[in-house]
Design goal:
125 residues, mainly alpha, AhpD-like, 2 domains, globular
Amino acid sequence: MSEKFEQGMQTRRRVLGSKHVDEAEAVKTEFDTPFQTLITEAAWGTVWSSDGISDRDRSMLTLALLAALGNFEEIPMHIRATARTGATKQDVLEVFQHVAIYAGVPRANHALKLAKQTYAEMEQN
């Protein structure tokens, strides 16, 4: 694999945890391997591996963008990642309040609902 892929896997494990990455890798198929390689190299090996901003800030930006664009499926994964990135519950609340003003209350409301559910699950484990 490429250097970007290796860096991406390291960063992905640091942010999401090895358990999550191992589970995702276990269901990877020949069909989606090229896509998984792309996101590992580009998202994790380039963007998330950059030292231009902190993991905490990057985590908050990611949550804001996911909510603002209505890409709710990945919000729980990125809420779980806040345990590793340093973004607090208060940070996440601030992010979704910002989304409410600039991208719409319904999107922020749904994102907040997902965050509450995910935090509750995290506290039970």
